[in-house]
Amino acid sequence: MIIHYLKVAFRNLLKYRTHSLISVLCLAVGITFFTVMSMFIARLGDYRDLPGYEHRATIKKEIGFLNVGDLERLQAMNIPELEDIIVGAHYSSKAEMTVIDRNGRELPYLVWYKLVNGAYFSGHSFEHIDGNIGLLADDEVVVTEAFARKVMGKENPIGLTLHKPALTKGEIENFRIVGVVDGSSYNYNYSSDQAEVYFPLSYDKHTSINIETILKPGVGIREFNERLNSVRTDMSDEHSKLSAYLIKDRHSEHIYVESFGYFIASLILLSGIVNFLKFIIQMFYNRQRELAIRKCVGSSTAGTFCLLFAECFCMMTVAGLFSMALSELCYVFAGYYLPKEVLGSISLSDMYLSNLKVYWVVLVVCMFIILYPVWRMRRATIIHMVMVGTRRHVFRNVMIGVQMAISLFFIGSTCVMGMALNEVIKGGANYLTEEEEGRIILMNINTGTLHKNRDAVISEIRTLPEVEAHTVMTHEADGTTWLWPYQHGNTSYEVSIMIGQPDYFDFFRVPMEGKKVEAEPGSNWIYVSQKFHERLLADSVMGTVNLNNTDYQIAGIYPELYKEKGNKRTIGSAFIVSPNDVKCYFRIHPKADVHDAMDKITSICRKYVPETLPLEIRLLTDKKGTGESIQNSIYYGMMILAFISILVVILSVYSAISMDTVSRQKEVAIRKINGATPKIIAWMFGRTYIITYLIVFLTLYPISRSLLIITMGSEFEVVYRLDWPVLLFFGMALIIFLVTAFKIWQIMHINPATIIKKE
Q1: Are 635 and 417 in contact (CB under 8 A)?
Q2: Is residue 230 over pLDDT 80?
Q3: Bridging pattern class, strands 482-488 and 491-500
Q4: Share of the chain above pLDDT 70, in %
Q5: Is residue 96 within 8 Å of 279, Cβ to Cβ?
């Protein structure tokens, strides 16, 4: 009997091969997307994997970040509630280092490093490979196994010397490698960055750090905070008070991110399942006469269910196999475009296993759903099944409406996100034209060798006839800046900070009112934005301003910097004058070739930098590695989702109206014989989709608008714009119209006599 059911199932699927293929394709896309999204969400890491998760707390300062000095004062207080203190730098850093092997060879590398204490490794579940990972001495470092293999191959790195050139007098330059850990077992996403080499905290006591602790059993977070609130790391600063929160409480933010990711993935999967079930159930009702005949010759309800389940099983199996192929394709593309650490331990076997799990869940769900039409058929009489024949059902229209709602959600989200990102990116004043931006080259002083020869390199580059002007900065001019605390009375604010030479204003065409000062060591000159200046006037601050516990003299005022608008956290921006920065900008003469100039700059740098060390030289218009690239990645991801959802809707509407025209072609033939015009026939088929779309849009639009106002407020202009909803409405309506019009045109041109003969 099983073979019989499979044969019948294949025959019916081949009879409706176009619709079957559409349903399989939509379901495969849904399974693939859900699988891939689930794998990457799992890769984001889970705080619950951390040792002592239930009692693990993070200590923070009221304003600003903690540093090593704060840690030393905290340890000196001998707080009994602290069982262990886990400390790591707030961010990883990158610097040129030289490994001296056992033969005395010097091997230069550009290395990511991080400052940690000995408890950091056990506190983050690092696997101990070799040596000592306690970081007991100031001149000891721990390296990852991957870094050790890259440098020494199969040789043991323990005892080798790691040379890091000192930037200030008195710094330790030579460190001994005393331990090796497996960095691949560490959850990078939890702690901000990766690292290849781990230095002791004593290397830089001014760096910002994260402090975590595992509370002793029986100690609650409220009791711990009461103790911390009575302590200040700096008695002269009332905002140096310490507080703590449990990791598991903050984990809710991570859960929200996970939930949103799974929500998006579930919508795509739901859309595929809806389209699949719509086809299966619609085909069931189109075959009621066949099923009635089977019932007459003795077919049981179980037999009918097995027949429907066989068709469902065949289609889902093909969809599952196809989803595995799509998952592998996604994995290959991800390997090309994503960093290796992002993929982490994700393997094809894991993806296949995840595909299989989703497949079985969907199969079980569909099996239970198709029980409903079987139950309805069991209650219906044979005469009723024969006489009713094919009919239109509310279920199909509801399913189409769900798919339209999902598609509108993704398309609308893409529009809003694109416009919001454009406001953020373009919201700040950019005083350069696109042509001028295309003539600016950015050179990053990314290694110690290049930093040591910085002045010589810049001087030689400035002599090039192609170079028109230059300036240096700490940050990229169109990138993210630091946020420094500004305090007035009992109120604290944050100010966006950029650091560089005062040539910045002329170089980037930023108007400035004030005097041009010299970038000399020890000078505390600062330029403030108009927005920040208004805040200072309101606070009666004139001439000087205190930022980050340092007094600066105000030299001038400028309108605004990049992306100053639309940031609720800041009250403006400031530009601190400094002679020693690492982002060098060169403006190329309009008559010169930019790429030739870039080649010449690269050649000059290679005179001082060996080939083993990388160079970072690019055009300003190249957004790779900037904050904007991340924003664009999110936007492009939403565009892909919107495209997928549009495709699913197109295929769904096409499949639905195709099945509708097949089931009602006799009705169309009779209507045409009786004089029905094309307009009547078109309205007969198209009104269902028009009404469904109007109901979906009129229901979804006010809900979406309300959510935008609640979540985004008045900060973004896009919330109150009407152009994107109008375009969204008519764009989707046009897509539905074209799909339905095509099938209606086909059915209208069929000869009625041919249809009646088939019946």
Answers
A1: yes
A2: no
A3: antiparallel
A4: 75
A5: no
258 three-state secondary structure:
helix
Q: Is the distance from CB of 140 to CB of 178 less than 8 angstroms?
A: yes
Name the amino acid, one letter, at 44.
Answer: L
Cα dist from 121 to 178, 560, 724, whole Å: 14, 43, 51
On average, the pLDDT of the chain sits at: 76
Q: Which residue has the tokens 């969400």?
A: 41
Write the pLDDT tens digit of every residue in 290-306: 666 666 766 666 776 77
pLDDT tens-digit profile of 356-391? 888 888 888 877 777 766 666 665 554 444 444 444
Rounded distance, CA 645 to CA 635, Å? 15
For 79, the enclosing helix (H) or strand (E) is none
Residue 192's pLDDT is what?
47
Query: pLDDT grade, residue 198 (50/70/90)?
Result: very high
Chain position carrying tokens 């930023």 = 510
Q: What are the CB-based long-range contacts (under 8 Å, 24+) for 420-426?
A: 420/712, 420/716, 420/718, 421/631, 421/632, 421/634, 421/635, 423/565, 423/566, 423/716, 423/717, 423/718, 424/563, 424/566, 424/631, 425/563, 425/628, 425/631
CA distance 432 to 439: 10
Locate 397 and state its tokens. 């229209």
Question: For tokens 């910097």, what's the residue?
Answer: 561
CA distance 331 to 226: 50
Q: 559-589 burial, b for 16+ CB within 10 Å, e for fewer?
A: ebbbbbeebeebbbbbbbbbeebbbbbbbbe
Reported residue count of the chain is 759
